[in-house]
Every structure is written in C-alpha cells, then in structure tokens.
Design goal:
10 helices; globular; alpha/beta; seven-stranded parallel sheet; UDP-galactose 4-epimerase, domain 1
Length: 323
C-alpha cells in the first residue's frame, strides 16, 4: 500500500507544491484548506474545503493514523500584512488555534510523523539590526524577541510541537522557513511577499518607468525557491532529526538588488522610488550550517534562476488579468 499524507494548507503556495511532490513520490494525499488553490488544480486524491480552527473539521480530516502530516496552514502574508500591526490578533489567534487542534489530533491518532513550518520571523530582532551581519543560527533564538506577533506565534507553536514530542513521543519535524518564493503563490492584494510584489511591479511597469520600494531598499534578505524548500522538507521528514532547522538560502541581497535582478530578467530599465512602508528587520539571512550537518544537503539554485521562473509566471498573470 502507498503511504498516506495529510497536507494542511494545501490550497496555499507551499502546500500546493508539497501536494504535487508527494503525489510524484507515490503517496495517497488528502489536502485541506479554507479554499481551493487559486492558481492551479490540486493534485491531491481528496481535497477538503474546511476551517482548521474548527475542531469538528479537524476530526473529519484527521480521521486515521496518517503516515505523515504537513502542518503548513497559517494566517500569514508579506510585510504589508504582518508588520502593520493591524492583523496581530487574527494572526495569533487563527494560527495558534490551528496548531493546537492539529498537534493534539496527531497525538490522538498516533500519526507517524508531523511536520511544522515555523518561520525566520521568530528570530530575535536585536540580532538583525546590521543589514550586513544578521545572526540567524538556530541556537540564537533565545532570549526571544521576535520582530512581530506573527513571529511570537511561530515560536510558541514550535515549542508546542516539541513539547508533544517530549511528553508523548510524537515524531515531529520543525523547520524555520526563510522567505520562500516561486510560481503559484500570492502576487497581489496585500499578502504577497517581496519577490512576488517586485515581480508584479516590474511586470506592470513600462520600460523607462518607475516602481515603488518600501524603505530605503538597503534592508537585506535571502530568498529560497519553493522547489528547494519542498526538497529540504522531504529530506527532513525522511531523516531522524527533529529540528528546529533553518530552510533558506545563504545568498543574501538588498531589496534594491532584488529589484535590479528582476528588472534584468524582465529586460526593463526602471527607476526605484523609495517610499514609506513596513520593512521589518534591517537584515536577515539563513544560516545553513546545521542544515548541511544534519541533512548533508543545501540549496543550489541561485536567486536569479528562481526569479526568472517566478517573473515569467507573474507576468502571465498580469497580462491575462489585464485582458
């Protein structure tokens, strides 16, 4: 018999890619989300539209001892959603409720393994003030001081999953994602992240025009292409390492440089107009020393290659949407 997997958040960006990967590996997959995937038809064997804040829905989808559960469902978005402060209560309540429901049922159903997607946003803001030298090694998480309530909830839920591992012997895997991007993800309406937002702005702009960048554009980040993220998660699940472990790229760039790469891919010359906007910490980069040590693997795809694929997909959305 094929292995079984439940993907929570299967209608979302990373969840949709995870479903496709698991199906290619021969899994029987059930997906669950608030809505169907906006940009592609799901590859899941079953797809349940349901609210994982509702315990009844959780019991319906976690009705058996799945071999693997991927908990990717969360109330989230890019800087324009996370860092304004306007959505803090919803972000914390919704995500924490989902995580409390899912981990408890995974324990009750004696699930084989459960993966939890944490975030680099849980790292202390005080270690990310220098854009050229951020510190994001896994052991730097404490004393805790995340830069957002989103980050605080991620840190709490990490501890929740690890507590179930210690107290009940539930096999868990925890990874901290660093800015995952790629096609079939949110690219407009305020929840998109920087790569998608910049790809959209460049696609919409006429050659010789300008695009807006929040802040001075000198804040640094690293961005990981979604296929590499999925590969890392699968390797973590197949390993005997619990985590937490960073899953990200070490190719750190400024936001201005990200815009330049995107313009180069698009073959457009544009002016950057810097405006006020939420920007988060000054510097963040994945530290992959533990990833290399525990999984004997690290990402290989360069940022430009991932932007090339992502830009072409977003450009198609912009063009088709304007017809």
């Amino acid at each position: 018999m094929s292995k079984t997997a439940l993907v929570c958040g299967a209608g979302g960006f990373i969840g949709g890619h995870m479903v496709t990967r698991l199906k290619k590996e021969g899994y029987w997959v059930r997906g669950v989300d608030l809505k169907h995937h906006e940009y592609k038809t799901t590859d899941a064997d079953e797809f349940v539209v349901g609210d994982l804040r509702d315990q009844t829905v959780c019991r319906e989808v976690l009705d058996r001892p799945f071999d693997e559960v991927y908990q990717l469902a969360a109330d989230m978005g890019g800087a324009g959603y996370i860092f304004t402060g306007d959505h803090d209560a919803d972000v914390m309540h919704n995500s924490a409720t989902i995580n409390l429901n899912i981990i408890h049922l995974c324990h009750q159903q004696k699930v084989g393994k459960v993966f939890y997607s944490s975030s680099a946003c849980m790292y202390p803001a005080y270690n990310q003030e220098d854009p050229d030298n951020p510190k994001c090694s896994e052991d730097s998480a404490y004393p805790a001081a995340p830069d957002s309530e989103y980050g605080w909830e991620k840190l709490f839920s990490e501890r929740l999953f690890l507590a179930y591992n210690r107290n009940y012997g539930l096999s868990v895997r925890v990874a901290r994602f660093h800015n995952i991007f790629g096609p079939y993800g949110t690219w407009k309406d305020g929840r998109e992240k920087a790569p998608a937002a910049i790809c959209r702005k460049v696609a919409e702009a006429s050659d010789g025009g300008e695009i807006e960048i929040w802040g001075d554009g000198k804040q640094t980040r690293s961005f990981l292409f979604v296929d590499e993220c999925v590969e890392a998660v699968r390797r973590l699940m197949l390993s005997d390492f619990t985590g937490p472990v960073n899953i990200g790229s070490e190719e750190m760039v400024t936001i201005n440089r990200l815009a330049e790469i995107t313009m180069d891919v698009a073959r457009k010359t544009l002016t950057l107009k810097h405006i006020d906007g939420p920007v988060g910490v000054r510097g963040r980069n994945s530290d992959n020393a533990l990833l290399r040590s525990k999984l004997e693997w690290e990402p290989r795809l360069m940022l430009r290659e991932g932007i090339d694929v992502t830009y072409k997909w977003i450009e198609e959305q912009v063009v088709s949407g304007s017809k």
